[in-house]
Structure formats: C-alpha cells, structure tokens
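ESCALATION

Customer reports they have been waiting on this structure for their group meeting. Please prioritize. Original submission:
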Amino acid sequence: MHYRLACVMVAACSLNVEAPAGPAACEADATCSDGYVCREQLCVPADLAKPESCATAMTAGRDHTCAVRSDGTAWCWGRNDDGQLGNGTLVDSSEPVQVALDGKVKAIAAGAQHSCAIVDADVEAGVVWCWGSNDAGRLGDGTNNKRGAPVRALDIAGAVQIVVGDAHTCARLDGGSVSCWGSNNLGQLGDDTKDFRAFPSRVKDLPPVTDLAAGGSTTCAIDAAHLLWCWGSNASGQRGNPDDDRSPVQAQITDVARVAVGAAFTCALTGAGAVSCFGTNEHRELAALGVFSSSAPLPVGVPARVVAIAAGSRFACATDEHARSWCWGENGNFQLGNDPSSVFEAPVLAYAGVTEIAGGGDHLCVRSSDDRFTCAGYNAYGQIGNGQRTTQRVPEKISGLTGVTSIDGGFFHTCATLVDGTVRCWGENRLGQLGDGSRVDRTTPVAVEGVAGARLVTAGGTHSCALIDGGTVTCWGSNDFGELGDDHTTGAGRTLARPVPGLTGVTQVAAAGGYTCAVANGVVSCWGNDRSTLSSMEPVAVALPPGVIGIAAGFAHTCALNGDHTVACWGFGDYGQIGNGISKSSREPLVVTELNSVDAISAHGDFTCAHVTADDSVRCWGHGQAGQLGTGSGSDSNTAAVVTALAGGAKLATGYNHACARRADGALACWGASDVGQLGNGSYDDSNVPVAVSGLSKVLDVAAGAGHTCAVLDDGSASVACWGDDRRGQLGDGVTALRVPVAPRLACP
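Update from on-call: job pushed to the front of the queue and completed.
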C-alpha cells in the first residue's frame, strides 16, 4: 500500500504546520494526535492542503537529490562532502539549498558524487555546468579539482540532455551527437580508449541519437531508427551485447523508445510499451528468477502498457499508461513503497498518479499528476529533504538523559544504566530488545520495565542484559538461540526482562550476536549460540582456570580476562580472533600470544581489543579489513597488534567494524569503518589509525554498535552523546528511517 503527503513544498503551504522532531509511536489502539496517522506503528503527517506546484524536474544521485523549480533555479539536498550540492560549501543539508547558478536551468542530473545542469544564459543556450567531485575530470573543466560551486564544462554549447554515471558525464547536443568526459577506465566515454578526459570528447562511431542514459560506468543512447547503442562497463552484460568493444555496440533489442541505466543493469522500453532489462540480477534488477546476469534482454512482466521507465542503482520502475508505477529490485530501505519486502522479484504497484520518477542510490523521488512531490528510502545524509537525516557524523547530545553510569550498543539499539539503578534503552525494538513491553522502535530513551538496582548493562545483537545488585542477571529481547538463559527459545523474543535462573555472584556480563556470557565467582558461564562452539538455552561453564575477572563477547568468539591479566579466547578464528598466532577456530580457550598486564578487553564483531597497563597501549587482533585494528593497515592479525599512536584505553568499545578508546587525556579516539559517520570526526572515510572524536574533551564511558557510537560525557551531569547510524533511532535524537514517502522542504518562489 502506498501513502503520499499532500503538502509537498511545506514552506509554500498556507497552513501553519510545524514538523515534529521525530516520528512518535502510535497509541495502543493505532491512533495518533490530530494531523497524523498511524503507519508501520509510527505517527506520520496526514495529508494536508494541496500546495502550489513548483518542481518541474528532479534527479536522484547516489546520496543526494536535486530539483529544478518553476523559476528555473536549481536546488539540491543530501550529502555534500564533495560539493555535490553546488552551494559553495562542503556541508550536508537535509533541506534543499540553492545551486549557485546564473540563468535558467533546463535540465539537471545527479550522479554518485557530482551533479551537472544545462543552463540557458542571456547570450548562449545549452551551456553545461557541473559541481562536486572531480576525480578523473568528471566536471569537464580541464582539471581534477573538487568544486563546491558550479564550473562550466569546456567547449560545450547547444546541449539538450545531460546524464551522469558514477564518475563520468555525457551530453546530447542539438543535432544528435554525444560528448562525454570523466573516468574512462571501462570505456564509458565511448572514444575507443581507456584514457580519462577532463574535458568533453566526442563519442565515436555513434549515429545521431534522440535519447541518452547513464549509470554506474555504462552509457546508452537511442538513435533515430530506435536502435539502442551502449558503451562502457559490460561486466554483467549491461550493454545488452556480449561484445566488449570500447566503442558503442548495438544492444540485442529493437524498436527502443526509452532507456534507463542502473549501477550494473539496463532497461529498455519499446514502442509497443513493453520493458526488457539486461545486466546483473543480483538484487532482481531484471525481475527474473534463476538468473544471476544476462546480456540478452529479458522481458519484465509489467501488467499494462508502459510509457516511461527509471532506474536506481539496484532497482527499476516503469510507469504505465494509467500513471501507475510498477517497481522491482532492491527495497531494503523502503524506497519502493512501505512494503517490508527487502527485494521485489517481480513488478509491484508502488505509486499511483505519477508524472515523473527518479531513482537514486537507495532512494526514490516521485512527482505525481496532482502536483505532489515525495521522496522515500535511505536518508543517511538528508537526501529525502524533509529536514531530518539518519546519520550523524559528529556527536549529538541526547536531550534529557543524565546520570548515566554505563552504556552499551547492540546492532541497532543502545542501553544505559542510570545512577538510580534503572535502565534506559532506545532504537530498534522489533524483538523486544528495549524491554519496555512493546515491539515499537523508540527514537528516545525509554525505561526498561521491571528492572531495578542495575549496575551494568550489555547489549547483544538484538537482546540486552543487566547485572543487578547482589550478582544476578536479567535479560530481555531476542531469544531464538536461548540467549536469555531461561531454558526456553522464543522466536518473537521477550519484551520484558526475566532473570537468568540459578545464576548468582555475577561480577561481569557480556552479550553479542546470539549469546551471553557472565563471570560469577571467577568462573565463566555462557548461554545461547555463538555460531561456533556454544549452543545452550541455559548457562554452561567454560573450561578456564578459576579467577577470571573480565569477559568480552564477539560475534562468534569469546575472550576472558584472567586473574593474572592475560587473555584467553575461543570460538571462530578464521580472521585471527583467537590471537594465538594461528588463524584457526578453537573449541578450547587459548592464551593470546605475548599479551600481559591487561586490565580491560572488548569484543563485539570479529575482533578484540585490550588495554595494556605496562605501556598504556591498546592492542587489537582479528578481522581488520575496515581498519578496525587501528594498526595503520587494513589487514587481519592473529596476534595482538599495537594500535597506532594511542595512549590510554582503559575504557574501550568495539563495534562490528570500528572501535573507540578513551585517551590518556580523557578525550575519545575512534578507528575503523566510518561509512555512516561512526568515528565521529565529521568524515565518512574509514580510518586505520585513531582519529579524535569532534567536540568531546572528556568521557566517562563509551559504547559501539553495528554502525553507531555513544559516549557518557564527563560534564558534571553524566549526559550522553551519540553519532553514526540512526536508521532505527539508536542515537536517541528522535529520528528514525521513515517507511513512507515524505515531502522535501522545497520552498516555492
């Protein structure tokens, strides 16, 4: 089912409606306050008055979106670290900002990290201006310099169509010729070379064309005889012909009226209104079963005559003669509607009343026949344009949360203990991992019901446990593998905390993935399933010498801090997680090689880190491909390797591909993956050495989840700041990924 918002350009509406800080949960009877309706257990704005229409064209890039208004100005929003919004800054924007262009914008195109527009000026028509990343000269200004404001592509005039791929640009000129520039490593410029061009170069051996499309590293064009010509990457057969020539080749399809190109696939619309696609089918881009890829066009079963097509990176949509859009392919971010299916293997009805549709990386924008403009899907950088975003690349403090004594992060949720012994959790809650008696995701902290006297909290993948005064443990959340330790499994999980029977004298507890471990009277017991050596619905003792003082649970391995301050690990070891110099799994605990004087350990993913008191260093071992070992390389290590240039680390947190440590001066440093900003230094670039977290001078504790990080601040009130992935509300800032289309805040002139 599809829901649309009627008030598209919010600033242009006469109603004084203030946008909420974030979606609230529906009441138990599925009702919401006035002006909101319940969708997917969240209250979202109901239809408002129909606005004036002012968006005349739109385009969606990988992580940003652009539109042309009725006054001929261009506006962009979303990711901007390469200047792809064109407003002269490198600052992301979750609301539309005006591109610094003079003249009337006639067409606009957004790619992976750059954008281009055709502008009619007073003295010259069809001029092309580009902005953003300029690797391999994709802006066409003769340089490789990044541009936060538009620059003119050289020697181009009379352009009537502009298209962009990941790192190349092409323009169709008046008369039907095509010029391209930028990256050319796969022949995407069509000039029979693989040399990149920082200025436009004419495509060779191409007849005059009437339509053009680009995506990934491939370009396609339709000639006057309705034949389809493609050039560039053909790794998955996306050129519609097995020929791998660097010049344009004719695809194996005729009577082509329109073409759309995705990341590694192409779809063609025939004059008869039928759609065929070719290329990769990894995400069902071809709407075919039992096929991994095909260079031969495969028919897509749209149940009506099609008049327009559009492609995103891994999905496609076809609009039929009744203005209905049918979509197929990747839907993991609900970009094709609010159906929970992650992949559509055949066309499904996604939108009705469609005038125009634009597919991006993992988001989709639709302009409807009744002048509404909505976007849906991945909103990490604000590319939906509604004033919110589902990542934060610098710390943001959680309002109203103080007095925190410990904190930990699961896959997509976070939990904290407070000085009064209660526990607060926030984020994903589909399996009850927040413990508030519901299965509703919470974007701000909620109290775990029935838990008092908590001293420590630990968050597994989708479950949580608290260590209670007196040495007992209580757990809640997912229980597929018995990770709650109560001798039962429950596929839906438990929404309320329940004590682990027979477990007393506990001093430490750790959870990760689908299992939990505790230290009681110096003995380690574990329960659940660690995907390696453990499968039990109740605690079982681990064969370790008595006197264990600490425990760390990884995705499929476990490490114990022994009383002599050595470390022993067991479980899955193919990445070197055991730390004994051999990348091999072990059912028995093995001592980590040459690691002594340890006072803290942490593991959540496929690696472990430890703080060594002898030299105040941090050492990590295991999986390191994202730089999460902090050694200056992206390699695995089966022995404990020293984290580069880091003094301190008694407070450690390891996520699934990143890690953080409190430095000797009390500030925080992080390293590893940063694709959603989880390192907190304002960048989306991974780092294989520690980088300082922006704006945090002193911290008391730190927690890392799958793609987010939170810290307890030494600010006199023990408040919490979080950063990184926020799609399920795990940053506690009132934001979550919406499963319904929303209106970009594009103000009308």
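Sent to customer with the following note: Residues 1-22, 47-52 have pLDDT under 50 and may be disordered.
Escalation resolved.
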